[in-house]
Every structure is written in C-alpha cells, then in structure tokens.
Design a protein that fits this description.
Layout (H helix, E strand, L loop, with lengths): L10 E9 L2 H32 L5 H14 L1 H5 L2 H24 L16 E4 L8 E4 L2 E4 L3 E6 L7 E9 L5 E8 L11 E6 L5 E3 L4 E2 L3 H19 L5 H35 L2 E5 L1 H7 L4 H23 L3 E5 L23 E3 L6 E3 H15 L1
Parallel strand pairs: 8-11, 11-12
Antiparallel strand pairs: 1-5, 1-7, 2-6, 3-4, 4-5, 6-7, 8-9, 9-10, 13-14
Bound molecules: zinc ion.
C-alpha cells in the first residue's frame, strides 16, 4: 500500500460456536447437501458450456439458470436465496483461481466436484435487521432457519458484512462473521507520540492520555490465574487434572483472542492518528533482568502489540521508533536530572525543577525525546 492509497478498512473474521436445535441442524444439513448439488451442477454447466461454445459461462447467466431450477426443485427452493446465490460466487472463484494458475504457468488443478460431506459451509451474504442474518437479543437470527443460540466470546469491533455457517469435522457448528473494522480517522497533522507500557494501565501516552485494559480482559486474566491454580491442586496424572488442564487451555485461547482483539483495535487507532510513534524496546530489557512475573506477562503482550503497531503504521507510511527504555522512568522529562524511584512510586516528583507528573506520563515523554534524539 502506498501512502496515498492506503485503505482505512480492514476485514476480519470472528468465529463463534453456535448451538442449532435438532430441527435447525437437520435443515442446515439439508441445505449443505442442496448447496453441494448446486455447486456441482454449476461446475458441470460451465464445463459443458465451454465444451460446446468455446467460452465460459458467467455467474450472471448462472444466476438465471439457478432461478429456473428453483421452481423445479424443492430442495433448492427451501434454501434462502442469498445462500443459494452465494454458491455461484464460490464456483466463479474456483474458476478464476484456476485461470490465474494457468496464466502463471503453475499446475492448474481443474475445479473439482464435491463429494458427499465435502461441502461444509453456507453463507448469508447480507447481514442486518430483516436481511439474511442478524442478532436478536443475543441469539443469531438466520432467515428460514430460525433463532440459533450463539456464544459471542469476544467483542465485535466493526460492521458485520456476511455470516457463514460451518460444520466442522467434530460435528460442532460455528458462525463465522466477516467484519469490516470501523475506520479510525486519519489525522493529517502527523503528530509524534511516545508510549509507555504499564502494569495497571495498558499504556500511557506522552500527551497524558491513558489506554486502559478492557474490563472483560482483566476479568478473563483473573480467571486464568484461578484455573492455573486449580490444575496444580489436582493430583498429578488424575482425570480431574486432565480435565482442569483442558479447561485452562480453552480459557487461555479465549484470553489470547481477547487480548489480540484489543491490541488490534488500539494499534489501528494509534497508527491512523500519529505520524511518529516511539515505543520501548522491551526485548533488550528482558535480556538484562526481569524478576517480576506480572511485568513479564505484560511485556510479552507488549511485544505482540508493538509488532502489530509497526506493520500497521508502516503500511500507512508512518514511522515507529523503538528506544532502549533504560532510565526513561527515572529521568525528569523537564530538566533531565535523575530522580530515583522504585516501581511502587507512582508519581514523579522532581526536587530539582519541581515537576510533578504521573510516573508513566513522565516516562512516555522521555521515550518520545529519546526517539527524536536517535
Ligand atoms: Zn526536573
């Protein structure tokens, strides 16, 4: 992406477990099978058409054929029209990929027919009230299927565009929502900012703003510690310990997702807002010493966050500078003298120039200065 044309919009998939009841599951299974038939016949039609006429069949023409088929076949008629139409997009994609491979001179692999059980998902191409799929009081409303129980375990940040219902090998059902992230306003004045990583707050900026960890993440991280303890309390090799370990692993995954989500959101916002971003290079410090567990966890997350921030900022033509954090919390950001304080002292009080500032705010300003000097 160049500086002038970068897109403010990012698409992301959110996957949630759903629990269709017996009847819904039967219907969804029927739909999968009907979609498989539509897919295979659309594939055959394209092939035959090419064989007879020497040219391909377009999706638009196939839509007309599908409409006519709908009147003849009850299974097709039973499916929501968006879901049936979407199958044709998949066929089109398969052919486009095939032609791209031919053009590139790699092994093309002609689009294949799908055998029983090989067609695994269906897609509602429109999301929203009165459209194919929507949320209604915490349940997922699928047109012509009904209200389906869904577990939304992470916050959705953006506008839902499509909803894909998927059956996995395990027999579990999932909804995959394609979400267009909310654009964050791009600030043309390209201010520079320094960011200090914290323990209590996620980060403090050199302009004094703080970014807090979201409440649901804090809660989940607390639960993680409880689950960790519960594993150690169970007897080694026991069934209960195995169970507890599984529970822990599942929750760990959840926390990871929540944290990643939060990092995505914050890094997007910072990357669009600021032209020059200065952060601490914590890997260097880690090599020196790290005895504080809480801090080391924070630092591990920080590394992930910084790499996200870097690629987003760089793709928008912005600059991220990593500085060695040594001394950033001890030095006075106004007069430059060293004011010694341990981690428990939360306020910087300078006896030389009289500056009184939140400890992390002072550090963030120093980080910004260091980046400017480097
Ligand atoms: Zn001072």
């Amino acid at each position: 992406m160049s500086k002038d044309t970068f897109s403010l919009k990012e698409m992301r998939n959110y996957k949630f477990r759903i629990y269709p009841d017996k009847e819904q599951e039967q219907n969804l299974t029927k739909w999968l099978e009907a979609c498989r038939v539509i897919y295979n016949s659309a594939l055959a039609d394209r092939k035959n058409h090419y064989y007879r006429n020497g040219k391909g069949l377009t999706r638009i023409k196939q839509q007309v054929i599908l409409k006519a088929d709908k009147e003849k076949h009850d299974q097709v008629k039973a499916i929501h029209s968006q879901v049936a139409q979407e199958v044709l997009f998949r066929v089109e994609r398969a052919f486009n990929n095939f032609f791209r491979r031919v053009k590139a001179g790699v092994k093309p692999g002609y689009p294949r027919y799908k055998g029983p059980g090989q067609y695994k998902s269906i897609t509602y191409t429109q999301y929203g009230e009165g459209l194919g799929a929507s949320f209604q009081n915490g349940t997922l409303k699928l047109s012509k299927i009904g209200l389906v129980k869904i577990i939304v375990h992470r916050e959705i940040y953006g506008e839902i565009k499509t909803c894909t219902i998927k059956k996995e090998q395990s027999g579990k059902w999932y909804a995959v929502l394609a979400v267009e992230e909310y654009p964050v306003l791009y600030s043309p004045n390209c201010q520079a900012i320094g960011i200090d990583v914290g323990i209590k707050e996620f980060a403090t900026l050199s302009n004094g703003e703080t970014i807090s960890n979201p409440k649901h993440l804090v809660k989940s991280e607390k639960k993680l510690k409880t689950l960790q303890r519960s594993v150690f309390r169970k007897k080694k090799g026991s069934k209960n310990r195995i169970k507890a370990k599984k529970r822990l692993a599942r929750h760990h995954e959840k926390v990871r997702n929540q944290r990643k989500d939060f990092h995505h959101r914050v890094s997007s916002q910072l990357a669009w807002k600021y032209g020059k971003i200065a952060v601490e290079d914590l890997q260097i410090q880690n090599m020196v010493k790290n005895h504080n567990l809480a801090k080391s966890i924070t630092d591990a997350g920080w590394g992930e966050f910084v790499s996200m921030l870097s690629y987003k900022a760089e793709s928008a033509g912005r600059e991220v500078t990593k500085v060695i954090p040594h001394g950033t919390s001890q030095q006075c950001s106004r007069c430059g003298n060293i004011v010694k304080k341990d981690l428990s002292v939360r306020t910087h009080v300078c006896s030389y120039c009289g500056l009184v500032l939140d400890r992390d705010h002072n550090a963030a300003i120093n980080i910004l200065y260091k980046a400017k000097a480097s």
